[in-house]
Amino acid sequence: MKYEDFKINIKLKLSALWASVMFLYIYGDYFELYVPKKVAGLLNGHNLLNTPYKLLLATILLTLPSLMIFLSLQLKPKWNRILNMAIGIILTLFTLLVGISSFSEWRIFYVMLSFLETGLTWYIVWSACNWPKQA
Asked: Considering the domain boundaries, does residue 1 fall inside one?
């Protein structure tokens, strides 16, 4: 018996990939709250995002994938492809750097999530590079 299958449109595929990346980011940030002394650091200002400008930069960076969920569905193929490749490359490098720099006993979950995010964003880049051509 063969099961029915259908080809998924590239825009839907990219949007779903960006949504998956966002879920991994959110889970990573949530689970990090369980790391010893993390909440205390947030409360007393001893953390990585300890200035308004660092917080703004992190906000801009992490806003990109959430915007790409919508933009991957909305934009015309040319700009869609370019943005998915550009933002995908930036976030691939970023999450790879985060993963490599997070090796510690209490952040091993973060390393795993970062490598999953890296794989997904690299697949986004690959998918955008191989955008199907019209017949």
From this structure: no
pTM of the predicted structure, to 2 decimals: 0.91
The total domain count for the chain is 1
Q: Which structural domain, as residue segments, surrounds residue 15?
A: 10-129
Q: Is 131 exposed, middle or buried (0-12, 13-18, 19+ CB in 10 A)?
A: middle
Q: For 87-121, how does the pLDDT look when each residue is reduced to its tens digit (9 = 90+)?
A: 999 999 999 998 999 888 888 999 999 999 999 99
Which of the four pLDDT bands, split at 50, 70 and 90, describes residue 125? very high
**Any domain includes 134:** no
Answer yes or no: are the C-beta atoms of 111 and 57 closer than 8 Å: no
Shortest CA distance to 121 belongs to which of 9, 25, 12?
A: 25
